[in-house]
Structures are given as C-alpha cells and as structure tokens.
Write a structure and sequence with these properties.
The protein is mostly beta strands and 102 residues long. The chain has a single domain, classed as Macroglobulin (MG2) domain (Immunoglobulin-like, Sandwich). The protein contains no helices and eight strands.
C-alpha cells in the first residue's frame, strides 16, 4: 500500500483554475499528467526531489486555451524514490503532486 500526498504551493498568483492528476502512481517508466486549466495560460512542468531541488524542467512556449491536457513524462532515468511533479503557470502559481518511482 502506498500513501501519496499532494502539496499545494502558491507563488505570487492563485492556483485556482488549475488542476493536476498523475497516473499511474507508483510508476516505473512513464507518468501521465492530466491537467485542466480554466483560463488561457502558459504552463511549465518540473520534476523535483523531496528537498525541492529541480531535476528536470519542461516549458510550453505557447499560450494554451482553457481545457484538459495530457502530458506523458519519461521517468526511467530516475532512481527509485519519491518525487514531485510541479505544474507552474505564467501567473506564478504552482501545484505539486507527489509520485513514487519504482
């Protein structure tokens, strides 16, 4: 049994209007991020370790219209452990969901 915790981290803006879910969790090679935005915005993703150190960052250059989006993220190169996937918006808001790499 695994317990997965999510931590909401806010920057200078509100994270309202953004949701993030991860599957499968735990994962071995790829994790799928499903995110929904209610306003047009740019988003970026970062994988962080438990100390908050950024391991990998991916940014979308385009302004995304409101809707639901999916992103597959390769995690094969990560050692086993617990990590966070953080979605950050152009307004400075961020949401982090934890996942386990087997």
């Amino acid at each position: 049994m695994y317990i997965v915790l999510g931590k909401k981290v806010q920057g200078s803006g509100s994270s309202s209007g953004v949701t993030l879910t991860l599957s499968p969790n735990p994962a071995t090679s790829v994790i799928r991020a499903t995110f929904n935005i209610t306003n047009a915005m740019k988003v970026s993703f970062a994988i962080v370790d438990m100390d908050g150190k950024i391991i990998n960052r991916q940014a979308d250059e385009a302004l995304l219209p409101p809707g639901t989006y999916y992103r597959s993220i390769n995690i094969q190169q990560l050692p086993q452990g617990t990590y966070g996937l953080q979605i950050m918006t152009g307004t400075g808001a961020a949401i982090t969901k934890q996942f386990i790499k087997l």
